[in-house]
Amino acid sequence: MTISEKVAYIQGLYDGLGLDSEKSGEARILSEMLDVLHEVGQQLDGLDVVMDRFDQDLDTLEDTVAELEEAVFDEDADEDEEDGGFDGFDGLDDEDFFEIPCPSCGEELIVDDEALAAGVVDCPACGGKFALSFEDEDSGHDE
After folding, report:
1. What is this structure's pTM?
2. Rounded to a whole number, what is the distance in angstroms from the first to the last CA of the chain?
């Protein structure tokens, strides 16, 4: 039972008593209190309607955010899967870099196209320099 329905029930009880608010001070006070309760009930019913709309809008917003998250994060995951899971360096593709071990110290080095074109790599870990070779170790032929 809503507040408005309860106030209507009390109003019915009051009306059933047949009290005359013109003649009795107590009846007048009760009549005024019922009017206030009636207004409060209507306002609370209005708030319920607004809250229901708010809940619906919030649900819609949550669905929209979930769809956006799925579109954004799944797209990134798909891109990572396509390029072998490489995270890249500062947004660069893994095609611009490759890893090789330093022949002196064994440190894994990231080599870019520029170093590849120069044919020489400086190891920042040990300070050694070495030339890049493109021969296939198994066959002895150039790739």
Report:
1. 0.40
2. 84
Contact 103, 77 (CB under 8 A): no
Residues 77 and 125 occupy one common structural domain: no
Q: Which parts of 18-118 fold into alpha helices (H)? A: 25-82, 113-118
- Residue 13 tokens read as 């009880």
Q: Tell me the three state secondary structure of residue 109.
A: strand
Question: What domain range includes position 75?
Answer: 3-82
Q: Which pLDDT tens digit goes with each residue over 122-141?
A: 888 888 888 876 555 444 44
Name the β-bridge partners of 49.
none
Residue type (1 letter), 135 = E
Instruction: Please give the Cα distance from 141 to 2 (Å, whole number).
Output: 88
